[in-house]
């Protein structure tokens, strides 16, 4: 699908696939999106509970991050957005993870789509920015639109725990792909809501971005960060 | 010689892709190989052998613990701030080959917090015979196998055995107990690797590590000739 913007121009479908590819080397593979802690707590035990977990993550923190990605792609100030993500992420471990993944994505994006604004960001913010902000800016550098950045962000919200659960629980990979396909309409819906939020944020300021959260994910993340033995970094 | 930092300073140019790597950045040598072949012991022995006159750091890629990093700290081969553990999400080969982001970040943090370094050893998590390092992560790689895992490994080949810049065959002191034929291993390795070097070690007795350390020094020398 070519994405139509308000201006009526279309973005490259192929470029979107490059950014969305799970093999895009941005460090995601070492993170479970909260799945490792949830598996240990018995919150994810099979394909059904994995799907519920993904749905919850998508509609809460996923919506927030997706809206932030859309906002960054549309040119809303990255530093303001970084504060907004901090304010919406109570867990210090998750904030650190978000910045780490942001730094790693920035490295991959700069090498893939050389761009002076990405270079400037790396110099100005050596500690990194939250991952969805970098995702939005990378999408812009790739000539993609906010709708594209949002779609990738929403997809990552569920793809990360699903690929981790395949490794953690031995979930049947075909079943896992089925979950992704079943979630697709909800991914599109979250993407659309996120894009609308980013448009409101342009008019009314970043307080218009969504504030939904899953406290359990935040609590789990703090616990997971203390483990001595774990397969995933978060 | 070593500056001690309580808190690692974040990298000043986080996210630099490889092509922006500074001329004076450290040489990076990767150590890969199957579980239990002696990668960590090789790293420890190399550090002991090289750290008198070289500034060293180590990145470990443990599969699910920090044991390798902690072993190196306990062995006191390097100060703790020179050793970083990277988590690999159950895929050690991905972290050294397909998506090297976390390892690159660990390297940059070490370089930026510890002052200029000469050499960074990147130890892979124990993996299979196909695990090799990306050229984007290391300048040269050592593949470590051991005689006790079977003397047919060099014959079987695979990317680690055939393409690594140096093949180390460890635990030669055990060969007679497990019926491994060292000469056959050497011949098979030669057949697979042509002119690429093979070294035999017994780290329980520190045999052979001087030769490996000399090889590492030679890599440093070759690189400094190329970059000056």
UniProtKB/TrEMBL annotation, chain A:
GO molecular function, one term: nickel cation binding
InterPro entries associated with the record: UreF, UreF_sf
A Pfam family this chain is assigned to: UreF
Known role: Required for maturation of urease via the functional incorporation of the urease nickel metallocenter.
Primary residence: cytoplasm
Entry keyword set: Chaperone, Cytoplasm, Nickel insertion
Lineage: superkingdom: Bacteria
Protein name: Urease accessory protein UreF
Subunit structure: UreD, UreF and UreG form a complex that acts as a GTP-hydrolysis-dependent molecular chaperone, activating the urease apoprotein by helping to assemble the nickel containing metallocenter of UreC. The UreE protein probably delivers the nickel.
Gene: ureF
Protein family membership: Belongs to the UreF family.
Record's GO cellular component terms: cytoplasm
Annotated compartments: Cytoplasm
From TrEMBL, chain B:
InterPro entries xrefs: CobW/HypB/UreG_nucleotide-bd, P-loop_NTPase, UreG
GO CC term, one of those recorded: cytoplasm
GO-annotated molecular function: GTP binding; GTPase activity; nickel cation binding
Binding site residues for GTP: 33-40
Basic residues compositional bias, start-end: 16-26
A biological process from GO: urea catabolic process
Any Pfam family: cobW
Keywords of the record: Chaperone, Cytoplasm, GTP-binding, Nickel insertion, Nucleotide-binding
Keyword ATP-binding: no
Region Disordered: start-end pairs: 1-31
Annotated localization: Cytoplasm
Subunit note: Homodimer. UreD, UreF and UreG form a complex that acts as a GTP-hydrolysis-dependent molecular chaperone, activating the urease apoprotein by helping to assemble the nickel containing metallocenter of UreC. The UreE protein probably delivers the nickel.
Function description: Facilitates the functional incorporation of the urease nickel metallocenter. This process requires GTP hydrolysis, probably effectuated by UreG.
Similarity comment: Belongs to the SIMIBI class G3E GTPase family. UreG subfamily.
Name assigned to this protein: Urease accessory protein UreG
Gene of this entry: ureG
């Amino acid at each position: 699908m070519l994405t139509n913007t308000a201006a009526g121009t279309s973005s490259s479908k192929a470029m979107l696939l490059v950014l969305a590819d799970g093999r895009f080397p941005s460090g995601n593979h070492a993170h479970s999106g909260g799945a490792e802690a949830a598996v240990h707590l018995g919150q994810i035990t099979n394909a059904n509970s994995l799907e519920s977990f993904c749905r919850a993550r998508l509609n809460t923190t996923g919506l927030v991050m997706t809206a932030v990605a859309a906002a960054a792609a549309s040119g809303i100030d990255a530093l303001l957005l970084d504060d907004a993500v901090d304010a919406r992420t109570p867990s210090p471990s998750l904030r650190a993870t978000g910045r780490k993944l942001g730094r790693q994505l920035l490295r991959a994006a700069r090498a893939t789509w050389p761009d002076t604004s990405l270079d400037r960001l790396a110099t100005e913010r050596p500690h990194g920015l939250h991952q969805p902000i970098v995702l939005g800016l990378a999408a812009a550098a790739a000539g993609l639109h906010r709708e594209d950045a949002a779609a990738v962000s929403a997809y990552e919200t569920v793809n990360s725990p699903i690929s981790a659960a395949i490794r953690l629980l031995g979930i049947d990979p075909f079943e896992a792909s089925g979950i992704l396909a079943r979630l697709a309409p909800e991914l599109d819906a979250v993407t659309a809501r996120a894009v609308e939020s980013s448009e409101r944020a342009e008019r009314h300021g970043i307080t218009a971005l969504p504030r939904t959260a899953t406290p359990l994910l935040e609590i789990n993340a703090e616990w997971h960060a203390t483990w001595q033995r774990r397969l995933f970094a978060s | 010689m070593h500056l001690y930092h309580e808190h690692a300073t974040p990298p000043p140019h986080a996210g630099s892709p490889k092509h922006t790597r500074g001329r004076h950045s450290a040489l990076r040598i990767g150590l890969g190989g199957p579980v239990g072949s002696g990668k960590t012991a090789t790293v420890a022995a190399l550090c002991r052998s090289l750290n008198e006159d070289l500034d060293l750091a180590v990145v470990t890629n443990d599969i699910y613990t920090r044991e390798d990093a902690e072993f190196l700290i306990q062995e006191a081969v390097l100060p703790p701030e020179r050793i970083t553990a990277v988590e690999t999400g159950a895929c050690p080969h991905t972290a050294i080959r397909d998506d090297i982001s976390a390892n690159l970040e660990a390297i940059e943090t070490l370089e930026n917090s510890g002052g200029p370094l000469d050499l960074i050893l990147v130890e892979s998590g124990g993996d299979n015979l196909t695990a090799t390092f990306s050229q984007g992560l290391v300048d040269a790689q050592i593949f470590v196998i051991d005689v006790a895992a079977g003397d047919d490994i060099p014959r079987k080949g695979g990317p680690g055995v055939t393409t690594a810049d140096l093949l180390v065959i460890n635990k030669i002191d055990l060969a007679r107990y497990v019926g491994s034929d060292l000469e056959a291993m050497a011949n098979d390795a030669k057949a697979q690797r042509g002119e690429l070097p093979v070294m035999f070690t017994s780290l329980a007795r520190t045999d052979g590590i001087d030769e490996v350390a000399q090889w590492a020094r030679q890599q440093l020398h070759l690189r400094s000739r190329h970059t000056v």
